[in-house]
Amino acid sequence: MAKLMISIPHSKDNTDKATVGFVVANASVASGVETAVWLSVEGVRLAVPGYADDIHEEGFAPLKKLMDDFIDAGGIIWLCSPCVKKRKIDEANLVEGTTIVGGAKAVEFLTTGASCITY
Fold first, then answer.
1. Overall number of domains in the chain
2. pTM above the 0.85 mark?
3. Contact between 51 and 79 (Cβ < 8 Å)
4. SS3 string of 21-45?
5. Of 68, 70, 100, 116, which is most buried with the most CB atoms under 10 A?
6. Do the strands 115-118 and 76-80 form a parallel or antiparallel pair, or are they unpaired?
7. 10: domain CATH number?
8. Which domain does 88 fall in, by range?
């Protein structure tokens, strides 16, 4: 099975890139590709409940819907552990379907045949 990682280091600092990253992630998972979104830097804020609710780029579905659809379709959302800690995000209160992992998890996924796109 093909594998793809979408790396999104943005949230409200660049809502266009965050949105387009999830648009591509949805297309990938809908195509039967094992798809993981790697949220790092400011992107980890998207895993805070309510944070993405008001992000809606013109011409696209709201980001919250894109994220929910991705998770519902079997997509994986990983959060960079050091990035979560640096931003003092409550690890016990995250959007359902997201998982905090270390960089080794991303490396493992990529070195087992995944391609990567960064937004």
1. 1
2. yes
3. no
4. HHHHHHHHHHCCCEEEEEECHHHHH
5. 70
6. unpaired
7. 3.40.1260.10
8. 3-118
